[in-house]
Amino acid sequence: MKITYYGQSCFLFDIGGTKVLFDPFITPNPLASEIDIDSIECDYILLSHGHGDHVADAEYLLNKTGATLVAIYEIVSWYQNKGIENVHPMNTGGKVHLPFGTVKMVNAIHSSSLPDGTYAGIAAGFVIESAEKTFYYAGDTALHMDMKLIGERYHLDFALLPIGDNFTMDVEDALVAANYVNTKKIIGMHYDTFPYIEIDHVEALELARRQQKELILMEIGQTIEL
Q1: 3-state class of 40 per DSSP?
Q2: What pLDDT is stored for residue 21 in this prediction?
Q3: Does the model's pTM come out above 0.85?
Q4: In Gene Ontology terms, what is one molecular function of this protein (predicted)?
């Protein structure tokens, strides 16, 4: 499984040849200025919630690539009104079987509205089960006890967790979340993009090391294989 990071909470997964993009916020992000958005190919775009720093490039990429949008019902409806036809609406607790694996929509504790102020349902995360790996993409969230259900029901290979604080969990809460979902490998997200969420990388990595967790802080544009 190959993972490419495009900044903030945007990751492209190559899962058995199917390309799955999460929360595209690239062109407005000065930290991602070196990324050529037109080079990005994807088959599916998963949106965790409606905030601009997660959906800014979604409409453009959906139109450009013909990817299928997977998101909560209210977000899907908003994009359908913009002419997007390839969609799969979901809601928390539901799952869908797609060519790359099973997508389960799980709870997140966070607000959600679309860039024009439209109600975007509730924020969500995703658990992805594939033939290669099983992982949890938490989206924007506070630490919450429902995460323990993920640890009880799934055998995660890793989790993508927000660590920037202020709007989401900080690193300390993310380490607790990793215990709840029963994984030792964390890919950090939702940090450094704005002054509110800048973090001390050395301190974050040391906190993880002390708790015997592997915290991966990817460089924007970097691709890793897990």
Answers
A1: coil
A2: 98
A3: yes
A4: hydrolase activity
